[in-house]
Amino acid sequence: MSKARIIIADGNDKSRLRLKALLTGYGYLVQAEARNAPDLLRKARMMFPDLVIMDSRLEGGSTQEIAGILESDELSNVLVLVDSSHPRQLDEIAHINKPYSEETLLSVIQVSLLYQSRFTSIKQEMGKLKESLNTRKGVEKAKGILMKKLGVDEAEAYRMMQKESMNRSISLKDLSRAIIIADQTEINNKER
Questions:
Q1: CA distance 82 to 69
Q2: Which residues, in sequence order, are bridge partners of residue 172?
Q3: How far apart are the C-alpha atoms of 61 and 151, rounded to whole Å?
Q4: Could you give the domains of the chain?
Q5: Section 45-53 average pLDDT
Q6: DSSP one-letter code for 94
Q7: Which contiguous run of DSSP H or E holds residue 34?
Q8: Considering only CA atoms, which of 188, 191, 176, 186 is closest in space to residue 144?
Q9: pTM for this one?
Q10: What gap in Å lies between CA 57 and CA 85, rounded to an integer?
Q11: Do residues 59 and 74 lie in contact, with contact meaning Cβ atoms separated by under 8 Å?
């Protein structure tokens, strides 16, 4: 079963212990427990759990504020357990109404963890694409500098950069950065 790391935040000791027993029984790792919002935030900042399951009546801050901090600071996904006698406005926060069945809770947890995993993968892919785009921009700028300084066409400037990259055993990204810095330094020295 899953070894997802979870922090449970509930001011009611019995509810917290019952939830912990349920989760550990299904193979989840309950990393920590918290009785109030400051305790929860401190533990989440230290442990970076996969999921925080918190009661909507947690003391020390509003549900929206606490969940907002956890998610915007990328500390954890949040699932709020909402007491039906105290409805909260939770439009953009994953939540489940009490009382809930074990099956419903476990299904919501699995879906939440699945979407977090997909979101993380997409975010990593976006980071790689941004890096690739920035590298490409740097290479293009460096080619432009070489074309202007050496009077060569684009293909020749690129071949020169490839050859120099191989000779020096550095990446095109690093070579491009060096060319751009050298050109900027030369411009700055001429302006003095």
A1: 18
A2: none
A3: 65
A4: 5-100 (3.40.50.2300), 129-191 (1.10.10.10)
A5: 93
A6: -
A7: strand 29-34
A8: 176
A9: 0.66
A10: 11
A11: no
